[in-house]
Amino acid sequence: MERTGDYRGNYLVRRQKLLPGEATSWHRDPFHRVTVVSSGDLLNIEFRDGGETQPCNITVGEVDWSEPSDRVHRAVNAGKEVFEEVVIFFLDRPDAVPQRRTIPTPARAEVRFRQADALNRTLRQDSS
Predict the structure, then answer these.
(1) pTM, whole model, 2 decimals?
(2) Residue 36 sits in which domain range?
(3) What is the pLDDT of residue 88?
(4) pLDDT value for 39
């Protein structure tokens, strides 16, 4: 995923690209935003809570106003073309994070805990 952007006060203008099969990170959208699509053909919105995937057929030149949402999701380029959009975020303060990534899933956290525990045991054994 490629992202470029520019902050001006409480606004962020960001260009984002997703190659076919590529996905954004899991995130929430806490701010209003306007999106202008410049390329692509099919985007799927997947929800971490297991909700039904929402397919979005893309129309180049499409402009969309999006309301804030606390539902954790990600966008997946399910099409054959590169998906590209320009998004204008309306932030509540200049240092706000426009699409806050979510914490790891419990399964990933458990794996990381086990890996750290195994490393600690190994280090203790090596120092004995």
Answers:
(1) 0.73
(2) 2-101
(3) 96
(4) 98
Q: What is the DSSP letter of 23?
A: B
Is residue 87 domain-resident? yes
Specify if 82 maps to a domain: yes
Count other C-beta atoms under 10 Å from residue 122's C-beta: 10
Asked if residue 89 belongs to a domain, the reply is yes
User: Does residue 55 sit within a domain?
Assistant: yes
pLDDT in tens, 16-48: 999 999 999 999 999 999 999 999 999 999 999
All residues at 6 or more sequence positions from 86 whose CB lies less than 8 Å from its CB, including other chains: 13, 14, 15, 16, 35, 36, 38
Helix, strand or coil, per DSSP, at residue 47: strand
Pairing of strands 63-66, 54-57: unpaired
Local confidence band at 6 (pLDDT 50, 70, 90 cut-offs): confident
User: Which residue do the tokens 């979510």 mark?
Assistant: 102
- CATH number reported for the structural domain that contains residue 31 in this entry: 2.60.120.10
| Number of compact structural domains in the chain | 1
Q: 16 CB contacts (<8 Å, ≥6 apart)?
A: 1, 2, 3, 24, 84, 85, 86, 87
